[in-house]
Amino acid sequence: SRAISRNAARGIKNSTTTRAGAMISADGLENGAALTAAFANAAAAPNGIGGTAAGAGLRARRALRAGDLALSVGPAAELLVTASRARAWLGAWLPPPPALDGGSSTFIAAEDLLRGQLVRVLDNEKAVLDACRACGMTAKCDGDRVAAVGRTLRVVDLDETDDSAEVRGPGIKDVWLSVGALAPPGDASAAADALDDETAMALCMMHIRFYKSRAQTHPLLAAWVANLPATFEQPLFWSEAELAELAGSCCRERAQGLRPAAEEAHRALTAGLGPDASGNLEEYLWALAFVRSRAVSLGPKQLPKLLDMEQRVLVPLLDFASHKPGLPAGMDHIRESADGQSIEIVALEDCAEGQEVFTSHGAKSGAELLLERGVIPEDNPHDAVEVTLTLQRATFAGPDVVKMCLLIAESPGQADEPASCQVVSAGSICGEPIALRLRLTPQRPLPTQLVSLCRLERLSSEDLVAAKSHIGASELERRLRAGEPLVGAGDDGAPCVEACRRADCQAASDLRRFLGEALAQYPEAPPKDEGASAPRRLALALRAVEMRILEAALAAAGALSIAAAPSGGG
Asked: Residue 398 has what pLDDT?
């Protein structure tokens, strides 16, 4: 694979050649016979793929053309892991959640709970409502409270001033309850049903790998999980020093938050389910990383007999294939067999005999793939860098400017330009400015929205109203949507036109300063170090990608400045 990974750092390629005629060489692997048999069955047709261990890559046993059947995994109904199936398995596997200490049947104070903890609402409707009245709650949301009676739910927020908790669960609205109306889950099945999708699948995989005597499942599923990598490369496992290598990157803050969030989630799981169910922290982190790096989004389009909605699922053996940028980004290369008994994977491109067969994880940037899967592919056409633009002047210039800014921010840009702008804050009368997150790509380092928003930042409300009247509201909006200058070739020298001309020039200067400041956040690239750790190599690779995009954006802004400069020297 061309992705940078710890295996690459160790000199181990992500794909190796198997014994001639063998689908998989599993000798020496735990449950290797089951994996060998599974691959032999999958290769009943001559279009098979060969491979070694999970994550080691797949190679074509014979020449494949794009669209040829490459791999078939079955029985699908027993091997496909969905969140609902994980919950059902966990309900049968998990021990009963622990009771409260001291003989109390309900919680007493908000400080006794954690955000994310599973709790059970009392079965008695009157007791629930009486407890809520006792802590000062009105009857306004009693309908939602009644709907929660007897349910096992998840705590999403806490208020220690009145000892109340906001709870959430499938099929009910988020609602605040007195903690005196809440008790431990009591029933493992109900507790499992209250888990969110990612947590349910992670706990399920953790039990299959580390608690085999409890987690009885299909032999192939167990063999697949047993032979997955023991470590993963996501920033979830990086040290503070390794995370610091992401300085300047748009993903640094998210990367730094992964471990604390996971640790908090594990503490909450342990509080609600007990340590026997939640496992130790390292086991839970392994399972979380496994799900994030292996799950794919599939639905009835690909698996009509198996799935009734789009969702994240785990398909055993599919993860043997490495990601390759530039392949079709959808999941249409995954399908059901005609009888619905197997999940089939077809080749996305022509492959010669012995050549590695790749898959696609979607149109994801290097930052997204690093956070999810711990890899940075080379030559990724979906690379991007995110920047946050704050519009201080436009926010307080008046409602006309604010409305136009939000209109442009939410527009798709040019016809061939993907959506590249997200409104983080629409501003407020309390003084909060408009804030936007923009996605710069190698193909579009300077999105039209970014250029036009910087121009609007330099217009007063009066100048905008006058320009709409003089140039025409629809024409002005068209220019802004297209990223064209506010002033056209045929516009005369009316005062509002001169104001627009100044805005064009000032915006070009603002863009150069804004992009230059973003680029300055990145440290200088160090000399090439072949002995660098995998996290450091990944971080440096991502920084290099993002810096190239920002440099291209800065160059485009410089060209914009030249174009916007007044003729005749001033």
From this structure: 78
